[in-house]
Design goal:
The protein has 82 residues and is mainly beta. It has one domain. The chain has 1 helix and 7 strands, in the order ββαβββββ. The strands form 2 sheets. Strands 1, 4, 5 and 6 form a 4-stranded antiparallel β-sheet that branches. Strands 2-3-7 form a 3-stranded antiparallel β-sheet, with no helix packed on it. The termini are far apart.
Length: 82
């Protein structure tokens, strides 16, 4: 895949989220708005990135990385948490 920002070839890989054992909170890979405080980002995510690709080591979402632009691009379905 070519980077949509600079046109260079992107590296294929994945974004990972660790499997956390939690009784009260769901686990997964989350997205938080940047205007939230650090504490809010830890406890109150805005969206969860959905994936069927999970195992005992954690969650994985296929992604592409541009080493020139330092950008990661991924396709994800999301679930609103707020």
């Amino acid at each position: 895949m070519d980077c949509p920002f600079c046109g260079c070839e992107m590296h294929t890989g994945e974004v990972r989220g660790e499997m956390m054992i939690s009784v009260e909170k769901d686990t997964g890979i989350f997205w938080c708005r940047s205007d939230r405080t650090k504490l809010q980002k830890i406890f109150d995510a805005d969206k969860r990135l959905l994936t069927d690709n999970k195992n005992i080591l954690g969650y994985r979402i296929p992604a592409h990385y541009c080493s020139k632009c330092k950008k990661v691009i991924l396709d994800a379905e999301v679930e609103d948490l707020v």
